[in-house]
Design goal:
The complex is a heterodimer. Chain A is α/β, with parallel strands linked by helices. Helices cover 34% and strands 27% of the residues of chain A. The chains are: A alpha/beta, B alpha/beta. Bound molecules: adenosine-5'-diphosphate and magnesium ion.
């Protein structure tokens, strides 16, 4: 058993970018094995929340705390958070010209292993693992020889994110709009990748504007984020209700926060 | 949280980070400081040179004196104090070289050990298998490996001083035929005082079976290094040649004014690769090598090809424009370059492609990386002369900036005197971007390694032009030179 109650606890988190407050007191706890979904209209602060958990520079946390595996991580460098098991699937995966995908993935897996006192993965073992995950994500074998995300289609980029999730096997997966821009086939593949990852030891936070990915990955909890605040929380039926009634429905009820 | 990701402006390579910065303890035979006719005669006598060569040196010296110090090139975008040419030692040889070594076994063990420390194991050839090395310490070649294999193929690869003795006709025919002694201030100086360097001749139809490498090192304090390299690829031959350079740390500046001449005859190809890692000076800009080099190749025959690849990370100042004169019809010239400057380093480098023959083709890909307060300039000239029907050139210049206090400049000169020419030019300037760094860090890779991976990626197109072992070393050099550029 772990020596912490919740994998991650976000406590009264206030975040600003350039003097503008974007997150206005977020409270959210995710236990091991739980799948949470954050839904909300564009600009409500969903990506900000995911990025701040991962430690992206450029945001100031003005008050509150993020406690991960029992410790505050606000002052911890992003690579250390990553090695501790926090993984962010990016809304907009970045292109790295000249950096081969293979080399990038090997460097990432070794950095995380070494951070956890393990040896670098032998090339043969790595290739085997990569091939297995590549097939899982139904990715073109040629892609791992190309520069990271360069010239990848939107769908290939998102699949590449989930390929990394599968390879790096973190404790907490933050999936930022992983479904956006995917056709139905790609959505199926990506969701399958996430469902394979899902287990009693893993926690997932799905950030999404639309409800449709939740048809494939069933959340235990759904939170609605509007203007930097969680205005409603509930079980997966909340997502259906939202889909039916639109965000205006919850905006009207803003203020009456409900916790699971 | 915010500012730890900003690429620092004040940091740079510490002295301790220049890993090649130890001095050899080898007593050297040194010419008195300063330059006059006597110095030229001294060098020539030391080398037991034939009269024609002494006369050529003296003509060069006379020309150098006549034109005066003011003739030193002023157009490069460089900033430095005038050089006192009388305060330089023009000849310094390790003592043991007086009876030049016949084979590796005769080489002073101390010298072998010194090269070993530099990562150039002259003895343990399995480490650099397939590479014949000519090691030049200060002004004198100390060891050439793999002689037997080369002899079998008919390839001549030896110190130029030895070639002057053994193959005087070849040397006399080609020396100064690409870079005449009157070419430019530093080439003239070099012609007067050059001490050693490598000579290579590949006979007709021979594909040189191994890579040839010359390893240069300046060791003596206050000494200049003026090596002269001459490579001739006869009809239908091929040779790949590599040069590597280091120097110990010095408070004062050291002058390196080399001349390299390449001649490719009909259907011949020369591939010339450089890893230049002369001491760049400390982080305040004190010391470092002035690297003022003239490199030029004549693609003289039909279908000949000359390809320059350079990775320049060292030197306080680099001033060099490896060029190709495309004389033969269908000849090809290529220039692939990475120039990295940090702290107060300055680089003004590029190429010249002079199209003379018909259907000649040149490709230029230059990558400049600037960090600290360093300045890097790409300066390139492409000339299409009237007879060069259907000439083609493609030029791509990419600059990458690290921090806000460095600079990158691109100065292309294009002269087209034949309407059938096809020219292409692309230039980009970018910064290592915070989103890229964060992406890598989010995957567990630390900031310094992330920065290195991005910059290494930026250089990948150039590194792949290098022979494999050299490409690994180039990556390694890049890593060391980048240490401390993020923080
Ligand atoms: N780096 C930034 N600089 C300025 N404004 C930002 C930045 N990041 C986010 N914002 C602003 O914060 C708000 C929330 O953005 P975001 O978290 O991306 O929302 P969502 O992901 O829910 O669409 C938006 O108004 C957006 O313009
Ligand atoms: Mg978003």
């Amino acid at each position: 058993m772990s020596n912490f109650e919740k994998l991650i606890e976000i406590k009264n988190l206030h975040v600003s970018v350039a003097e503008t407050e974007i997150l206005k007191g977020i409270n959210l706890s995710i236990g091991e094995g739980e799948v949470h979904a954050i839904m909300g209209p564009n600009g409500s602060g969903k990506s900000t929340l995911a990025n701040v958990i991962a430690g992206r520079p450029g945001y100031s946390v003005t008050s509150g705390d993020i406690v991960y595996k029992g410790d505050s991580i606000l002052k911890v460098a992003p690579e250390i958070r990553a090695r501790a098991g926090i993984f962010l699937a990016f809304q907009y995966p970045v292109e790295l010209p000249g950096v081969r995908t293979w080399q990038f993935l090997k460097a990432a897996i070794d950095a995380i292993r070494k951070g956890n006192g393990q040896e670098e993965l032998k090339i043969r073992d790595f290739d085997k693992l990569l091939e297995e995950k590549r097939q899982l994500m139904e990715m073109d074998p040629d892609l791992v020889r190309r520069s990271v995300n360069e010239g990848f289609s939107g769908g290939e980029k998102k699949r590449n994110e989930i390929l990394q999730l599968a390879l790096l096997d973190p404790s907490l997966a933050l999936l930022d709009e992983t479904d956006s821009g995917l056709d139905i086939d790609a959505l199926r593949i990506v969701s399958h990748g996430v469902n394979i990852f899902k287990s009693p030891e893993k926690s997932i936070l799905i950030v999404t504007h639309y409800q449709r990915i939740l048809d494939y990955i069933t959340p235990d909890y759904v939170h609605v984020l509007v203007d930097g605040k969680i205005v409603r929380s509930g079980d997966s039926s909340l997502a259906m209700e939202l889909e039916e009634k639109g965000y205006d429905w919850v905006k009207d009820g803003a203020g009456e926060e409900v916790h699971p | 949280m915010a500012d730890q990701k900003v690429i620092s402006r004040q940091t740079g390579v510490e002295d301790t980070q220049y890993k090649w910065g130890f001095e050899f303890d080898i007593e050297s035979e040194v010419a008195p400081k300063g330059l006059n006719e006597g110095t030229v005669r001294f060098i020539s006598a030391k080398k037991k040179e034939p009269d024609w060569l002494l006369k050529w040196r003296l003509k060069a010296f006379e020309h150098w004196v006549d034109q005066g110090d003011d003739a030193s090139p002023k157009w490069a975008k460089l900033n430095f104090e005038d050089i006192d040419f009388q305060d330089i030692i023009y000849y310094a040889a390790p003592k043991s070289s007086d009876d030049a070594p016949k084979s590796l076994d005769d080489v002073d063990p101390e010298i072998l050990e010194a090269f070993d420390k530099l990562g150039i194991p002259l003895h343990e050839q399995e480490k650099l298998s397939g590479v014949a090395i000519d090691a030049v310490l200060d002004s004198v070649s100390v060891a050439t490996t793999y002689q037997d294999m080369l002899k079998e193929a008919g390839v001549i690869f030896c110190p130029i001083s030895e070639a002057v003795q053994k193959y005087p006709d070849l040397v006399q025919k080609y020396l100064g035929s690409v870079v005449p002694y009157s070419d430019n201030f530093y080439a003239t100086l070099n012609s007067a005082v050059f001490s050693d360097g490598s000579f290579c001749y590949v006979p007709p139809g021979v594909r040189c079976p191994i890579e040839l490498m010359t390893y240069f090192r300046i060791n003596e304090a206050d000494s200049g290094q003026f090596e002269r390299t001459l490579i001739i690829a006869d009809e239908g031959s091929y040779v790949s040649y590599l040069e590597g350079c280091t120097a110990p740390m010095r408070k004062s500046h050291q002058l390196h004014a080399a001349v390299v001449e390449l001649v490719a005859l009909k259907d011949a190809e020369i591939k010339y690769s450089t890893l230049q890692n002369w001491y760049p000076g400390d982080k305040n800009g004190e010391g470092g090598v002035y690297n003022f080099v003239t490199k030029r190749g004549a693609a003289r025959g039909e279908n000949s090809k000359i390809s320059w690849t350079q990775v320049e990370t060292g030197s306080a100042i680099t001033w060099k424009y490896p060029s190709v004169i495309l004389q033969g019809d269908n000849s090809v010239g290529e220039f692939y370059s990475v120039a990295l400057v940090n702290n107060y380093q300055q680089a003004d480098t590029g190429t010249k492609m002079i199209h003379i023959g018909k259907n000649t083709k040149s490709t230029i890909i230059a990558k400049g990386i600037s960090a600290g307060k360093a300045q890097s300039t790409y300066r390139g000239q492409v000339s299409i002369l009237p007879g060069a029907d259907n000439a083609r050139n493609f030029t791509q210049c990419d600059s990458l900036l690290i921090g806000d206090e460095c600079g990158a400049h691109t100065v292309p000169y294009i002269e087209v005197r034949n309407p059938t020419a096809k020219m292409g030019h692309e230039a980009t300037t970018s910064k290592v971007n915070d989103d890229q760094l964060f992406y890598l860090q989010q995957r567990g890779i630390d900031l310094e390694e992330s920065n290195y991976m991005i910059i290494n990626g930026f250089c990948r197109g150039i590194f792949k032009e290098l022979p494999f072992e050299f490409a690994m070393e180039a990556s390694q050099l890049l890593r060391v030179s980048l240490e401390g550029t993020v923080g």
